[in-house]
Amino acid sequence: MEKIKVGLLTMSDGREYLHQDYIQLNMDYQQEIKEALESTGLFQVTAGDMPLHSNEEAKREAMKLQKAGVEATILNYTIWCYPQFTAVAQNFAPGPYLLFCNLHPSECGMVGMMAAAGTLEQLNVKFQKLWGSVKEPEVLNKMVDFLRAAAAVKRLKGMTFGNFGGRPLGMYTAVANLEQWQKEFGIDVENVEQDDIIRAGETVAEEKVEHAFTWLEANVGSIQYDGIGLTPKKLKLQIRSYYGLRKIIADKSLDFVGIKAHGDLTDRYVTMDIAEAFLNDPYDFDGPKEPIVAATESDMDGALTMQLFKLLTGKPVLFADVRHYDKENDVWFFSNSGTHATYFAGASMDPAENLKHVTFCPETHYYPAGGASVHHFARGGRVTLARLARKNGKYVMTIVPAEIVEFEKEKMTAMGNTTTPAWPVAFTRLQVSADQFLEKFPCNHIHGVYGDCVEALKLTANLLNMDVQILQQEV
Description:
Layout: E1 4-11, H1 16-39, E2 43-47, H2 55-68, E3 72-77, H3 83-89, E4 97-101, H4 109-122, E5 127-131, H5 137-156, E6 160-164, H6 178-185, E7 188-192, H7 195-202, H8 206-219, E8 222-223, H9 232-251, E9 256-259, H10 265-268, H11 273-280, E10 283-284, E11 287-288, E12 294-296, H12 300-313, E13 318-326, E14 331-335, H13 351-355, E15 359-362, E16 372-375, E17 381-391, E18 394-404, H14 409-416, E19 425-430, H15 434-440, E20 445-450, H16 454-463, E21 467-470
Parallel strand pairs: 1-2, 1-3, 3-4, 4-5, 6-7, 6-9, 8-15, 9-12, 18-21
Antiparallel strand pairs: 10-11, 13-14, 13-20, 14-19, 15-16, 17-18, 17-20, 18-19
Helix pairs in contact: 2-3, 3-4, 5-12, 5-16, 7-9, 8-9, 9-11
């Protein structure tokens, strides 16, 4: 992902003699923050040239951050400093804002930060506070979480969602309000006909399709042609649909998409399983690429949840149905009609490592047009699951800390056969009871990434003025 552009300003005392006494201390602390952030490889930091000790300096240095296009600003407090400089700077330095102070008892950074925070509260300016030494991993991690959340919120603005086909299968939870998306997130929606996928696919050069077909046959663990639902011809049609979608996405400058598929493409063309899996993957038949969030069933709020995950982590994001709870093994079957990114089969950036665990199965009776379903069992590991949903028109973020678990291959196959054998499954153990999960989780689709993303999601929700519910057992 593109590095996050961060602004960094350090406030000072308005009294000239004290400002001069503490210039070096202030700049040392500022440099410490800059070096810590840039050492992560995630950030490009634009720092002020001096500690701010006048309104004129506050305006000038803040405008430099504005010109640099920073996506969030850290306001640093090492000593007592006049709150008015923070008030002036926030008029020009781009938010969101993180107020940060040291904890040294002989220096008054905390007093300076608290006075500035009170000022911003009176001005109704949103901010987050953080204190401690940036040399401590816990403090640095909290700073990174905030900056990731701030950038995610900032980067949503101006994005375009490509909605292929509209509402699927009567789902209210898959359809969002255009005005609300523009007002709250700055996202536009481009409605696209699904027939455009077919037409764009027909323009793809034959040699490009053959290359992809050969690559899949060489790398996928097993392709179970049956001569009816899954044939080489239908697989090549699915490849064309992938390239057709890529062309439309590029031509229309779409940032993330949803594809209805059901009842139209799945009845008379082929399924979009191959296309959706490889859009969400960090690679395709031609090499490494950035994942493109693609929500099946054109689930708008699902796609938005996935896009936030992607902006926070840069990782491929899971899309799944809440399919079944296995009480005996205490696991949920998070499964969908064949569209999990193949990344989840091995959790590797190397396609060969993932695809050797993947089987292309003939589509089920749900999809008469046929094609391949992308089957695998998700690699075990800690995950963060979430879902954005609306209640009385207001968004709520539901977060579910969890772990994907693995069993012996034979046992997983037997368990998978109790549902739909052709579909991929993430066997997932939650930190909350089945009753509580079903009571509180807001819909039938769930999304997630490997790793702990809870704090970053909470910060994101806070910046977006959303309520949060976390589904986990209280300790």
